[in-house]
From TrEMBL:
Transmembrane segments: none
Residues of the PRELI/MSF1 domain: 1-175
Domain of life (superkingdom): Eukaryota
Protein name listed in UniProt: PRELI/MSF1-like protein
Family matches, as InterPro entries: PRELI/MSF1_dom (IPR006797), Slowmo/Ups (IPR037365)
GO cellular component, one term: mitochondrial intermembrane space
Length: 189
């Protein structure tokens, strides 16, 4: 098993980050072209805790290295199951995901948490446990795990850049809407 971990500080409040999270695969993010579809499977609020739980199925276009394709066959689309938990009381947004594609060859379990650092800063912590499941072939297992750790690192850089753009656009849209509402209130007064 190999582990990838990453931490990023966003100069946005937890409220801004947790709201913008739902737009991270949308048109504002020019770094997420690989995401083909995001389908919400279920969404519920726990009445006792106020935690919003959402289950999603994410379909991505992925190009695997040729040597992996020779072992597994050509698969251009991959599916990931994601469950997220928004806890407004503790101000945490936790997302856990598991690969569905190639799950008989490799298990990828990822956890991402957004939590406030200060009034205007939010910490994003990401970890992924990658385990190749190919029996006694240690060299192949290591190669698969190393390849996926490298891919996680590359994707984390693109993901941060794309989410920064989503955050900027989200802040701009909310500021424009706030300004519009203030104008309307002044006219009505």
């Amino acid at each position: 098993m190999k582990v990838f971990s990453n931490a990023v500080t966003y100069n946005y409040s937890w409220d801004e980050v947790s709201s913008a999270n739902w737009q991270k695969y949308g048109p504002w993010n020019n770094k997420s072209e690989h995401v083909i579809a995001v389908d919400t499977l279920s969404r519920s609020v726990d009445p006792a805790t106020g935690v919003l739980r959402t289950e999603r199925l994410i379909c991505c276009k992925q190009s695997a290295p040729e040597w992996i394709k020779s072992i597994c066959g050509k698969v251009d689309e991959s599916y990931v199951y994601e469950a997220s938990y928004v806890d407004p009381s503790n101000k945490t947004l936790t997302m856990v995901s598991q690969n569905l594609t190639w799950s008989n060859l490799v298990s990828v379990q990822e956890e991402c948490v957004y939590s406030p650092l200060s009034e205007g800063e939010t910490l994003f912590s990401q970890s992924a446990r990658i385990t190749a499941l190919c029996g006694g072939w240690q060299r192949i297992r290591n190669s698969i795990e190393d390849t996926l750790v490298t891919r996680f690192h590359e994707n984390s850089i693109r993901g941060r850049e794309g989410f920064e753009r989503v955050l900027e656009m989200s802040r701009k849209v909310f500021a424009e809407e706030k300004e519009r509402l203030q104008r309307e209130q002044m006219i009505a007064a």
